[in-house]
Request: fold
Amino acid sequence: MDGGKSEQHRLHQQDRDLDAGAPRREVSTARQAPQPEDARRLPQPTQSLVMQLMTEVERLEGELATARAEARALAARAEEDPLTGLANRRGFARELARTVSYVQRYGASAALFYIDLDGFKAINDRRGHAAGDAVLTAVSATLVSHVRASDRIARLGGDEFALILWNIRPDDAERKARALEEMIAALPAGRNEAGEPELGASVGVTMITGDDTPAVAEARADRAMYVRKNARGGGR
Reply:
């Protein structure tokens, strides 16, 4: 392949990358960078000027790499709950949309859990926000320790949490929901000064189907949670 054809192939590949949705910043358009030994072959003062330019290019490339890393970190923090470190509602919405798409495309099995804490408002009002935060972080740690790395957990806001569990059958999902209720109710952070439990949880669960949209799956999980709360006589 001659030089002209090679260059044409490179440009066409860039077009295909951009058409496929590759971020423009990640599509290479630069030729191989000049090396210092190339500059040394040049006469002075051209050599000095080229060396200065190469140094400046290296500096700018370093600043650009730092800026990109900072932008990625900011984007990650925008989808993270600052108290628990879990995904927030925005981050969870993205994960749920991805999950629904995967279930539709590949027929995978996934369950959506909605968790609402019972008695949390009373704890927060009577014992203060620090105690409330301790409850939320304890619940978060419990959820993290009882799911797999491939599963997804989020704090949607207030005392509401959500989970996506992969490769689980409906009966196992129901058993998992009840087990989570028991574990949350047993947390030391949810007990009063006398050691009596004041915290509970209502966990609703639904299987994500190939006909779902994220909104439909969320609404069904939310209804299941409220049905469970009413059946248990749970309060906020």
